[in-house]
Amino acid sequence: MTSRAGARKRDTYRHGDLRNALIQAGLELVRDGGPNAVVLREVTRRVGVVPNAAYRHFADRNALLRAIRQAALAQLAAAMETELAALPPADDPVESARDRIRALAAGYLRFAQAEPGLFRAAFSTSDMTDTATGTTTAENESAYGPGGLSAFQLLGAALDDLVESGALPAERRPGAEYFVWSAVHGLAVLLIDGPLRGLLPVQVDEAGQRLMDSIERGI
Amino acid sequence: MTSRAGARKRDTYRHGDLRNALIQAGLELVRDGGPNAVVLREVTRRVGVVPNAAYRHFADRNALLRAIRQAALAQLAAAMETELAALPPADDPVESARDRIRALAAGYLRFAQAEPGLFRAAFSTSDMTDTATGTTTAENESAYGPGGLSAFQLLGAALDDLVESGALPAERRPGAEYFVWSAVHGLAVLLIDGPLRGLLPVQVDEAGQRLMDSIERGI
DNA sequence: CGTCAATGTGGACATCGTACACAAGGTGTT
DNA sequence: AACACCTTGTGTACGATGTCCACATTGACG
Q1: Between the CA of B56 and the C1' of C6, what is the distance in angstroms?
Q2: Domains along chain B?
Q3: What are the residue boundaries of the HTH tetR-type domain, all occurrences included (chains A, B) (predicted)?
Q4: What is the mean pLDDT of residues A125-142?
């Protein structure tokens, strides 16, 4: 009654799974509203718990945000894996490796556009490195998808296959993921935040194709 | 006395240039602390004015932030122009055009690393598009450097020269800036925010070189 | 010199993150 | 079964923030 949205009154004094519930509610907030829509009081409100309860599971709002970011990264990786899985089997190993890279890139871009809030959250740091503390929160930076690989690792594996199939000279392999990831990530960011925001879906597709062609040439 | 940092007590009742002063103070805050270090009250404090005074020049905190972002974008463009100007004159027009693109990219990356706060602010939107209002603040998205060109336009011009010099087939020109910008922007973001943060300066240079090589191949 | 629009001030309010002390409820020992 | 203890949630409180409203000060223009 008193609570606004889906905040059922719990009958037990203990919640049982508060930590996860908070992350889940946070993800909902982040989904439409980006990282700084995660306001601690609102998160706890949704779970039906008093604000301070969150402090039993997270040091502060930033810690909660980090956990949410981790979850968002995992969803990214999952989306990319899904795209991989949907790929029809190809006989030519070279073709196959190329297709996988394109699929990963497409999954990345699609996720960014389908879930800009999650995507922004996944790569937001504005709050974690607090101004020259230098700590940079060097924790495990990557969150893994169902397959156990992070987005970055997925890309790395695909590039390895590209080398193995003979399509990419081994001496070009080192650092290749930096280039590919940079290009894809850059387009994603420019599309949802930057000056390319507001492009028509057709143009977005064109830009995506153009980008992937250039990536293939440039690797 | 009462004010903490550099907040001189003004003798005139009117400030005379409050709007600019606020933007300037905001830039200082953004410089170490990123976009959400721009706290309206702190900004006005630094200028030596009461918080509400800002509302005579900006509709709200977001409007101030937009102005600051514009200024940061201008500084980015300026940094790129500087890099261009420092380029030794080349006789071969093809070489020259390539050098200019590399210089622009280098300027972009250098600026991002030298002024991560400004850079983040320049491309932050988390607050301007308020959740499905759809307005996306379609104002003049670009801020111009001393030369009167935005970062994007600088790149476009360099690419035009590349075509004119014959190094780039005209049919590859359309959309080329999307690719180049994406790659450079992506690396910049990954370097200062993303998982590539914390790379050693040497590695950063390597990644930068690698990226620019790939870009040249891929354009 | 008087009026008026522009600009800055003062005070108030709701909301936020978070600290501190306390309550409720499991868990393990005896 | 009784008890102490540790974990987890509650209540209250404080300082800070963005923004609203009414008022004060000022320069420009008649």
Answers
A1: 9
A2: 72-218 (1.10.357)
A3: 16-76
A4: 48
